[in-house]
Write a structure and sequence with these properties.
5 helices, globular, 76% helix
Length: 89
């Protein structure tokens, strides 16, 4: 999460992909928050608990990874890439 939080606001997908450590962190954080987002949606985890523990972290991670996720969706032709992560944010 520290690497994801350190991504500058003006970064593009290509900037994230240029650094293997940042790209690995983006995937790891995205997968974790994807699962957490679905867990909230399925009512396995209360939204208030996530908001209290890491609400700002989730929103900052989405803000920093959004350009990368949107580019992945464009490349894949699917809007489902990290959809639950976006929903949670």
């Amino acid at each position: 999460m520290i690497l994801v939080h350190s991504i500058p606001d003006s970064s593009r997908a290509s900037d994230i992909e240029a650094d293997p450590r940042v790209l690995d962190a983006a995937h790891a954080v995205g997968v974790i928050l994807e699962g957490l987002g679905y867990s909230v949606y399925a009512r396995l985890v209360p939204l208030q608990v996530v908001a209290d523990l890491m609400g700002g972290t989730v929103r900052l991670a989405w803000r920093n990874l959004r350009p990368y996720v949107e580019e992945e969706r464009r490349r894949n032709g699917s809007q489902k890439t990290f959809e639950w992560f976006q929903w949670l944010a």
